[in-house]
Amino acid sequence: MVSLFSVVLTFIAIILIPGLLISRRLSVPFSIRNILRFIKLAASQNDGEEERNEKRYGTMGEKEKRGGLPKHVAIILDGNRRWSQKRGLGTSDGHKAGARRVMENAKDCFAMGINTVSLFAFSTENWARPEDEVNGLMSLFEENFRSELPFFQRDKIKISVIGNRTKIPQSLLGLIRETEEATKSYEGKHLILAIDYSGKFDILQACKSLAEKAKNGVIQVEDIDESVIDKELMTNCSDFPNPDLLIRTSGEQRISNFFLWQSAYTELYFPNVLWPDFGEAEYLQALTWYQQRQRRFGRRV
């Protein structure tokens, strides 16, 4: 059974998006951001109907199987350097364009009612890149933490940074701590930035923590299960630690050591679009694709 949300998305693809060109000529205030707000309203109205269907037909209703919005979207930001090379620009220009895209897409996610957005901003393996590129990225992180804090506070967005902090410059660490402290009480909008993050390291540090607790008698070995490990991972900062949808831009089809444990049942989407070009329309396409997925979680549907 096709949900109202899917019908709305199809309507946008066929009718509304072409109308953008007409609206520009007529000076009509017609933007995809307004469309997103309309979809959110339609989805919220549809929730009540789907909940009634679940009561009538069972707990595994249409909303769970198909048509629901993801609560947690994770994104691997790939393609900044290729974007700059195609335009004859420097590597730093590509990273700056990518940073601008980060905030634009985060705003769109939260406007849709998505609770958690996780961004793979800098992997542990990225330290092997040229020194000037790494230093430029650290400076860019500092610049954005400074400039975006007022926005985070105004829109009440909680910020969490996950990863190994031992190599991060002290100046950047100070800004990270300041931002996390200033936004820690906010609920409903959570932006997680993975900086010097590795999925393997995340699992390793969780295992070490549990081993230490078992050694000290804080926990019994037989009590360790998946839920206990979940609480030891760095994503324990989120109410929704496991992403529903993971997007990797640029066309590469791998997750590159990101959220290895958390992505067991995540829907993986690989658009052939470089990250700085991944705008509102591309994000809508990703959501449309997600809407069409039938999530089984290992069960037969």
Strand order, sheet with most strands: 3-4-2-1-5-6
Termini Cα gap: 13 Å
Q: Uncertain runs with pLDDT below 50, 5 residues or more? A: 11-18, 20-30, 49-66
Q: What overall geometry do the principal axes of the alpha carbons give?
A: globular
Secondary-structure class = alpha/beta
CATH structural class of the largest domain: Alpha Beta
Task: Write a structural description.
The protein has helices at 4-26, 32-57, 62-65, 80-86, 91-111, 131-154, 170-183, 199-215, 226-232, 280-292, and strands spanning 72-76, 116-123, 158-162, 190-197, 245-248, 267-269. With 301 residues, it is an alpha/beta fold. It folds into two domains: 1-68, no CATH class; 70-277, Undecaprenyl pyrophosphate synthetase. Helix 1 packs antiparallel against helix 2, helix 4 packs across helix 5 (91-111) and helix 5 runs parallel beside helix 6 (131-154). The protein is globular, with a radius of gyration of 21 Å. Mean pLDDT is 84; it is low at 11-18, 20-30 and 49-66.
In short:
Belongs to the UPP synthase family. This protein is an alpha/beta fold and 301 residues long.
